[in-house]
Automatic annotation (TrEMBL):
Parts of the chain that traverse the membrane: none
Signal peptide interval: none
Protein family (similarity comment): Belongs to the C/M/P thioester hydrolase family.
Protein name: Acyl-coenzyme A thioesterase 4-like isoform X2
Lineage: superkingdom: Eukaryota
UniProt xrefs under Pfam families: BAAT_C (PF08840), Bile_Hydr_Trans (PF04775)
All copies of domain Acyl-CoA thioester hydrolase/bile acid-CoA amino acid N-acetyltransferase, residue ranges: 43-174
Molecular functions (GO terms): fatty acyl-CoA hydrolase activity
Length: 447
């Protein structure tokens, strides 16, 4: 007869090899929770399964993760095991919790700040050289976050990365340009992206890191609110020559294919993307624009930028601010609207139909109408997503419907829009189509 401690020791070895923890049992295998792959890119699906459970019984799967700022985010979902005592999140529906239905990645895009968290949080990766580490746990019964002391049956961790092994991160401070260049593994040369975000300012790297993980060199470009740019930091102090220099810096890099460079912009980065592609000697191969304007109420380097835009701010009943009306084409001086008839490359424009920060649908209509009148409608592709908000980003990370915008001179919470499940579906679909668009326009058509 085999002693009980030998059985438990062998089961513990198995559990450690699979990345989980044990629930002691004297009668058979202890419950097991697996997540595969245990280390993956942020846009990779993870298969989460529970094994050796009681047949047809309620269980809860929980996820917990700390942001780079130390804030706790969490999600949970209720499942019922099948007749074999298993649960498979790729196959089985959630019947309660942070989401409903069969959502294999619901524990990731369903993350929300834990109770008692700071106001106005938004989950964004600041250090792309470290992963998000997700703790997944399996609990007995259908419970909520506040009942986490319920019996934990098993647990496992999963790492989520923006940088694949071998991707190189290079800080750029050259010819006045401030950014971070990400290069894929290998000698190249690689097709490339110039990557710009919105008026939140700073240097946002995680999308560029993910592009490099997909085989594209990518330059994340700062143009506002960064200590290494000309001050003051509360306005844009660079002009067209800055963006032209950034494109040429990327173009001249020995590991970049000079004739295979695209530009991507979100929010105000859309205006800059379109402006660069139609006004300068820059010749991009393609453009991707996500929820942003085709014009601007203010001029670059205008000393009264913020003041000029504030007259279009609106507020909801909670006092949260929406910037949506700033970008209504009717509010933009005609001379400040990009001359879209000069566009010479394919453009993909992505619309979140619940965008509360930018008049994205109206701007998409304006761009499409202008291109059609110029006989260039073949250059335009629109993706439009009901229920999606402003911040359409790489998939499986949670949307924030609102978040803290500023604390000085006064605290402002801004509205982004979007509802968790449809926004998550939009991010997943848009990212796949972005990669397909880049494959066609930066690889196949340029060979």
């Amino acid at each position: 007869m085999i002693p009980c401690f030998s059985v438990h020791r062998n089961l513990a070895c198995l559990q450690r090899a699979l990345g989980g923890v044990m629930w002691k049992s004297s009668f058979g295998p202890a419950p097991l929770l697996t997540a595969a792959p245990a280390r993956a890119l942020i846009d990779d699906q993870i298969s989460i399964k529970g094994h050796f459970l009681q047949p047809q019984c309620p269980v809860t799967v929980c996820a917990q993760m700390h942001s780079d700022d130390g804030d706790l985010w969490e999600a949970f979902a209720h499942y019922n095991t099948n007749a074999d005592g298993n649960v498979n999140l790729t196959r089985d529906p959630s019947v309660g919790g942070s989401y409903l239905g069969c959502e294999p990645m619901g524990l990731f895009w369903g993350l929300q700040p834990a109770p008692g968290a700071r106001e106005g949080l938004r989950l964004r990766k600041k250090n792309v050289e470290t992963p998000y580490v997700m703790l997944l746990s399996l609990l007995e019964g259908h419970v909520s976050h506040s009942e986490r002391q319920s019996s934990e049956l098993a647990a496992v961790t999963a790492e989520r990365w923006y940088m694949a092994p071998g991707v190189r991160r290079i800080e750029i401070r050259q010819d006045g340009v401030v950014g971070t260049l990400f290069l894929p593994p290998g000698p190249g040369p690689f097709p490339a992206m110039l990557d710009m975000w919105g008026m939140g300012g700073g240097l946002v790297e995680y999308r560029s890191a993910l592009f490099a993980s997909k085989g594209y060199a990518s330059l994340a470009l700062a143009y506002f609110g960064h200590r290494d740019l000309p001050g003051p930091q509360n306005r844009i102090n660079v002009g067209d020559s800055y963006f032209t220099s950034a494109f040429h810096l990327l173009q001249d890099h020995p590991q970049v294919c000079a004739n295979r460079i695209g530009i991507i912009g979100l929010s105000f980065g859309v205006y800059l993307t379109l402006r660069i592609a139609t006004q300068s000697d820059v010749k991009p191969s393609c453009l991707i624009c996500i929820n942003g304007p085709a014009g601007n109420t203010i001029k670059l380097m205008d000393e009264e930028q913020m003041e000029n835009g504030q007259r279009y701010w609106t507020y909801d009943d909670q006092g949260f601010v929406s910037f949506r009306d700033i970008s209504l084409p009717a509010n933009i001086p005609p001379e400040n609207i990009v001359k879209m008839e000069h566009l010479a490359c394919p453009l993909m424009y992505i619309v979140g139909e619940d965008d509360m920060s930018s008049s994205s649908m109206e701007n998409a209509n304006l761009i499409e109408e202008t291109l059609m009148a110029a006989g260039k409608s073949q250059l335009f592709t629109r993706l439009s997503y009901p229920g999606a908000g402003h911040l359409i980003e790489p998939p499986y990370m949670p949307n924030s419907r609102s978040s803290l915008w500023s604390v000085k001179p006064k605290k402002l919470v801004t509205l982004w829009g979007g509802h968790l499940a449809p926004h998550a579906a939009a991010q997943e679909d848009a990212w796949k189509k972005i990669l397909d668009f880049l494959e066609i326009n930066l690889r196949r058509n340029s060979l």
